[in-house]
Amino acid sequence: MQDNPPTTLLTWHAHWQSGPTNMARDAALLTWCQQQPHPVWILHTYCWQPATLSVGVHQSQASIQQAVTNLPEDANRSKAVVRRPTGGRAIPHGADISVAIITNHLPTVQAPLAQRYASLTQPLLSALTAIGITIEGYTGADNTAPNAYAAHSLCFSSHTPWDIKDTQGHKIAGCAQTVQKNGILQHGAVFLPNTLPDESLNKPDLSAYQQLAQALTKTTQAQLQSLLGTAITASKFDASDTHWQQTYTEQYQHTANESAELSQLLLQPITP
Predict the structure, then answer these.
(1) Is the distance from CB of 8 to CB of 33 less than 8 angstroms?
(2) Is residue 110 a contact partner of residue 139, using CB atoms and an 8 Å limit?
(3) Which residues contact 230 (CB under 8 A, 6 or more apart)?
(4) Which domain holds residue 23?
(5) Beta carbons of 76 and 270 less than 8 angstroms apart
(6) Rounded distance, CA 205 to CA 54, Å?
(7) Among 22, 56, 135, 261, which is least packed, fewest CB within 10 Å?
(8) Of 83, 122, 78, nearest to 99 (Cα)?
């Protein structure tokens, strides 16, 4: 009998990068992951500098423009725009911590929508609890109809069943996915309650980021061990891999060009 192929968990805790860099890395990681001969899971965490408005892969120009309008006036003029490879609505990044989970594990890729979200969001739920944040969990059925969510231009102005709320009912994390034939990428944006971001730079507290990243490594590892029934060892992703570097470079050019076009079109200064 042939043994099951080994499963690898790779981590990359990257700190602050630009919007095009963050999104190009995730897109390249998804492509790279699908090309691997064995099951691979990747945990990629990062923050955003400069502050950036990310928009869903299918979000229309009209919806993006509405999102810009709904932001504070000073934010309209300062934030760049980048399109995510995942769905969902617009998110003003800066004070949040972003999480990407990527895998080519076919049972997860091919699972029903609710099962995919439950499986991929559980490590984040567990990590938030581990660092002392009391959460309510999934939001339930209020305002979760697809048409109701699509009517909002900003992710955090609406809810889906897979959002994470604190005990006061405030949405502190939203997730979105893209599913391809042999791989899946889930994005999560986390605005930690009871922490003070660096308002001068619109960045999250570094210690809070490090705590969450470390907790996520442990909870993702535990989730995989429970899911697969075998011990999982975490190791750092090798960003010097030549093939990945080539994929990333190509993806970055596309993402950066589109980001520049969106930013120029939507966020140009308002003429008095």
Answers:
(1) no
(2) no
(3) 4, 7
(4) 8-266
(5) yes
(6) 21
(7) 261
(8) 122
